[in-house]
Amino acid sequence: MSLSLFGLLALVSAVMAQTQNCVLEVPPNPLTAQGLATPYKMSGCDQTQFATEACFVEAAILDPATGAIQIYNPLIINQNSTRAGFDFITPIVPTLPDNAVVGIFFGSNAVTLTLTGDTSTCVNGDANGVFGQFAYCNTPAFFSAAFSAVSSGLIKIPPPGTSTKGTAQACPVTRDFRMVDMDQSDNVDSTYLLINGHILAQNTPANAKKYSNATEFNNGSDNLLLNAFLSPTLGCTAGTFEAPCITCASGSSAAMALNELQSQFFVPTRGPALVPLNDDFTVDAGNNGTVEQSLIKTNLYRAGVGQPQAADAANASSVTYCTRYAASGIFIALNEELFTDATSPAPAASNNLFTFMANRFATSFGPVPALGCQTIFGIDSPVNQTTDGNGVVIAATINTQVLQDILDGKILPLGQTSTSTSTTSVNTVSSTSSVSLSTSTLLNVNVDSTTSSLSTSTTTTSALSTTTSISSTSTTTVLVEVVSFFIFVLNLGGVTPGVTGSIGSFVVLEEIFVDLPGAASAACKHQFNSCASLAGSAFSGTDCLNQLNSCNGVASTASPTASTPGTTTATATVPATTSSSPAIATGAPQNNNNADAIAPATDASANCPAVPPLTVSSCTASATSTVTVTVSAGSGVASATGSAHRHIHSHLRHRAAEALKPTIQPHWRA
Ligand SMILES: *[C@@H]1O[C@H](CO)[C@@H](O)[C@H](O)[C@H]1NC(C)=O
Ligand SMILES: *[C@@H]1O[C@H](CO)[C@@H](O)[C@H](O)[C@H]1NC(C)=O
Ligand SMILES: *[C@@H]1O[C@H](CO)[C@@H](O)[C@H](O)[C@H]1NC(C)=O
Ligand SMILES: *[C@@H]1O[C@H](CO)[C@@H](O)[C@H](O)[C@H]1NC(C)=O
Ligand SMILES: *[C@@H]1O[C@H](CO)[C@@H](O)[C@H](O)[C@H]1NC(C)=O
Ligand SMILES: CC(=O)N[C@H]1CO[C@H](CO)[C@@H](O)[C@@H]1O
């Protein structure tokens, strides 16, 4: 079985000017057992041409009562009755639990995939074009239900763990900058059988046994790369997350839904790699053959793979993504010896796992239609590749110094200069990112001032201890003003979003609730999701869960005693370490006219160890309203990009709402 990668294949295909545009007819009621067991019909492409034209469907089925997940791969056949691949073996019918929540993911080896048929729950792009090789049906609902099941303890996700070979390293997950490619999170693990060259079938254990001479085909994916190559090579197989699968020869399978879930709750140290604006699946083609970035399309894509929405373009920044992506080349170089001894996933392209990874990174880091990182930084390829007479990469040298300089902010995007004066800009950005963690998912929080020591904000300067060390320390004070009927003071991963509105109609973000406990509980859930999206090395999903439980406790008794919400100034969002209890930021109500709804401030001293990748070297909290955190950047963390200030105003709410609209009313390309 050979393997290549969707994105790279897309690139190659684009270069070769192939035009396989597949149209896949979604059967009626695709989320039911019968719909799942009805073959999807392909036109425009030939499903038997696996490497260049096949498409793949992968459903994740959740039982919300038990948390059980099963994977099921609907079959695809050719619509054209005179073609091989029109004949098929009747699909096996899955057993769905009551209230099953079904999400369906699509992957394709062709250039584009467009869905037709019963697409009422499906999204395959925005009004300006399809994603390309990816589409989904109902997966936002799947992830929402799955996140709840994780929060209530029904789903247990195995931790990815630490590698047992080579140097000890955190095992990669799919949202890891060390292993993403030019279009992350586009992978399904589906495999199918082609029997006697013309009959298509699911790769069920029975079919696999009966037709042992059939051709098994799969789509190349980051999942396969991770599960079949990187994990074994690094000694990381203990953390593989699989689920039962009746359409998989072995009876169980990894899956896109599982990879994204694991990534959600075990966030890599450098932060999660989330679909950015420069992902080639989320750009739109401009009129002149230009490529135009689209926040809407990026957010549509993210919604389909369980990733948080980006509040603004800065939150899906290609510069930030490219900066962090530099870590990949360093990771590959670090593991050169280990990877050189491992099999190449694509022998026709590279002779071992090291040259494969180096080539894949170089291509992805390269010019548009890849991520365009090289162009952003104005550098030559950081990878020097040597090929043999057949074009197979047989050696590679990675310029890790250049990559480290990008990570360290010493190499800046073209046209950008550091704005720092006496303190380092590295810390400015680090500070900013710790701030944006708390604000961008909490859109109706008014951030009064999020300042670094470079700031002139009068609100916070009194609380700042001036930075003296030029090299690596700065002080950040974060003041968040929350207008809310409900204040909950534990802030691990961010404050609870405000509950506003008026009695009888409480608003949390864009949702309306009749009663305050219901609204407060929704606020708790948002905080949990934010917490969970950050959970990883600094604090665990369990910490988030504990926080959620105590938040729900306070929420259940919340009652407004005033007709207008109170204003509370609170916060620092510095995650605690795994071993400690959730970080506590003191909330000191300033305008506390609804004391009943405000939980008592429990602790004046914030518990503030590390924000990955920052190290907290001192931390003091006053009993009033500010927490002062001194952080120092870890090595190779941030670049000198962005500004030290981040003001999130209420209009962002509307922008976010706009951005979300297409999720509700997907547009389809004719
Ligand atoms: C159907 O398949 C046959 C045989 O490959 C081909 O000649 C014909 O053009 C196809 N028809 C359509 C509509 O694609
Ligand atoms: C594959 O196996 C089937 C059933 O055992 C047999 O009928 C068929 O001829 C075989 N095909 C090939 C190409 O060997
Ligand atoms: C193509 O690009 C040129 C130069 O940027 C611009 O003047 C022109 O209007 C564009 N054409 C279209 C159809 O967008
Ligand atoms: C975007 O916001 C999320 C939280 O919603 C945060 O985790 C992430 O670091 C932000 N990313 C960027 C690039 O600002
Ligand atoms: C790439 O390798 C070749 C052969 O070793 C060498 O001549 C060349 O200078 C290298 N290029 C870069 C950019 O390192
Ligand atoms: C893109 C990709 O990996 N395509 C592969 C799908 O599976 C077939 C059969 O294993 C391979 O030949 C393709 O290369």
Structure overview:
28% of the residues lie in helices and 20% in strands. Strands 22, 23, 27, 28, 29 and 30 form a six-stranded antiparallel β-sheet that branches. Strands 4-3-7-12-9 form a five-stranded antiparallel β-sheet. By secondary structure, the protein is an alpha+beta fold. A hairpin with a 2-residue loop joins strand 10 (125-126) and strand 11 (129-130). It has three domains: 6-283, no CATH class; 336-407, no CATH class; 425-661, no CATH class. Bound molecules: 2-acetamido-2-deoxy-beta-D-glucopyranose (6 copies). One 2-acetamido-2-deoxy-beta-D-glucopyranose (NAG) binds at residues 380, 384.
Q: Looking at the chains present, what oligomeric state does this protein adopt?
A: single chain
Give the structural class: alpha+beta
| Binned strand content | 15-25%
Instruction: Using the CA coordinates, give the radius of gyration.
Output: 25 Å
Count of the separate structural domains: 3
The amount of helix comes to 25-40%
Low-confidence parts lasting 5 or more residues at pLDDT below 50? 1-18, 419-480, 570-670
- Report the strand count: 30
Ligand set: 2-acetamido-2-deoxy-beta-D-glucopyranose
What overall form do the CA principal axes indicate?
A: globular
Signal peptide: 1-17
Region (Disordered): 556-598
Keywords: Signal
